[in-house]
TrEMBL record:
Chief localisation class: membrane
Organism expressing this protein natively: Proteiniclasticum aestuarii
Protein name, per record: Dicarboxylate/amino acid:cation symporter
Subcellular location: Cell membrane
InterPro entries recorded: Na-dicarboxylate_symporter, Na:dicarbo_symporter_sf
PANTHER family xrefs: PROTON/GLUTAMATE-ASPARTATE SYMPORTER (PTHR42865), PROTON_GLUTAMATE-ASPARTATE SYMPORTER (PTHR42865:SF7)
Keyword entries, A-Z: Cell membrane, Membrane, Transmembrane, Transmembrane helix, Transport
Classification of source organism: Bacteria, Bacillati, Bacillota, Clostridia, Eubacteriales
Length: 404
């Protein structure tokens, strides 16, 4: 018998949860503890997962090989990721998918990150004691330490081909990844328990926010990639419609698989053989983008966190939403390539901001559909960043672009 894939399991769990909540009502609250267990299991491994993923990603970049092109790529990745998170904030404030839901009790804000001055906020990003940061689950401080650790490992490559500490981190990361994979097997049960409990207490009022959330995701995705497509096309002096057609195989694979990793070989092929980007630029920039450029995830996190805040009646100031942009950007580092990786990243972002983790159940129900928009934005922007760098480095073959 063929095994049902993870995404389909989540969709089935969501449908059954909504139906069960509508039929059995508040009686479904009796199984909500199963959802709470699922959330705790995710939290249990998140700190170590983030640390190993970032150290491995940053440490894998050899300084000598990295050079000007790699630095230019990272600057571009930061710009596009921040822009995506900002557009997400604008879109969710304009459409307001989580506002006005009847039957939800307002949640108390549990964090401290929002309630300090900007200067103190920036200072608070630097850990005094990384072990204390780990014990307190201070994700921003953990990410900052992990970046420095990864950079140090990268510099050690000048003396050693693969430092022992790097092999230890990679091996440890694989163990943590296996733990997360096993936890995610429990995701359909956890999401069913949480969402059926919410639906049981709210009834049909839960459905409209889910549809509005998806509309917000697709609207923002279209706006972002259209903006970048036009800007890069103008810079390279090519027809934007012709450029998007060059990426059609990449687009088809990304939409049908919702996987950036699976799309990568097709992505490189389109870059080199259809667009005319040199093999050197294509391999380096696309590989870096795989781990470090997650515009779709940044968009998902900014929209999801504010939707969850709206859903629970938590008012967010302009300063708080700026923090969410920073959190959404930082949470994409190390790009978690596991089933339900976006849900794990969402848990990280909610941990950072102190917003209710229970909101994951609401978003998880439609995350497979959101994943289409997320993956599409990831791969298109990866190709556009690679194309921009190729043109700037004069490693773009216009004859290949015009011929194919």
């Amino acid at each position: 018998m063929k095994k049902i894939n993870f995404s389909l399991q989540i969709v089935i769990a969501t449908v059954l949860a909504i139906l069960s909540g509508l039929v059995f009502g508040e009686a479904m609250e009796k199984i909500s503890f199963l959802g709470d267990i699922f959330l705790r299991l995710i939290q249990m491994s998140v700190v170590l997962l983030v640390m190993t993923a970032i150290i491995e990603s940053v440490g894998a970049i050899e300084p000598g090989e990295f050079g000007k092109i790699g630095l230019k790529a990272i600057i571009l990745f930061v710009i596009t990721t921040v822009y995506s998170a900002v557009i997400g904030v604008f879109a969710v404030n304009m459409i307001k998918p989580g506002v006005g839901v009847i039957g939800v009790e307002p949640a108390a804000y549990q964090g401290e990150i929002f309630n300090i001055r900007i200067q103190d906020l920036i200072t608070s990003f630097i850990p005094r004691n990384v072990f204390q940061s780990m014990a307190e689950g201070n994700m921003i401080q953990i990410i900052v330490f992990s970046i420095f650790f990864g950079m140090a490992v990268s510099l050690l490559r000048k003396k050693h081909k693969e430092p022992e500490i790097y092999r230890v981190v990679v091996s440890f990361g694989k163990v943590i990844m296996e733990i997360i994979k096993k936890i995610m097997l429990f995701a359909p049960v956890g999401i069913f328990a949480l969402l059926s409990s919410i639906t049981g207490s709210m009834g049909t009022a839960i459905i409209m926010p889910l549809l509005k959330y998806l509309f917000t995701m697709f609207f923002a995705t279209f706006f972002i990639f259209t903006t970048f497509l036009i800007l890069v096309s103008l810079y390279a002096k090519v027809n934007p419609f012709r450029l998007i057609m060059k990426m059609k195989d990449t687009i088809i694979v990304s939409v049908t698989t919702t996987s950036s990793a699976i799309s990568l070989p097709v992505q490189m092929s389109d870059c080199e053989h259809k667009i005319g980007i040199s093999s050197r630029i294509s391999k380096l920039v696309n590989s870096l983008a795989m781990s470090l450029n997650s515009d779709g995830l940044a968009l998902t996190l900014s929209i999801s966190t504010i939707t969850i805040a709206q859903f629970f009646g938590i008012e967010l100031s302009l300063q708080q939403q700026i923090v969410i942009v920073a959190v959404s950007t930082l949470s994409t580092l190390g790009n978690l390539l596991v089933p339900g990786g976006a849900l794990v990243a969402m848990a990280i972002a909610l941990n950072m901001t102190g917003l209710p983790l229970e909101g994951i159940a609401l978003i998880a129900g439609v995350d497979w559909f959101a994943g289409i928009a997320r993956t599409l934005l990831n791969v298109i922007n990866d190709v556009l960043c690679t194309f921009y760098i190729a043109v700037s480095e004069r490693e773009f073959d216009r004859e290949i672009f015009d011929k194919n």
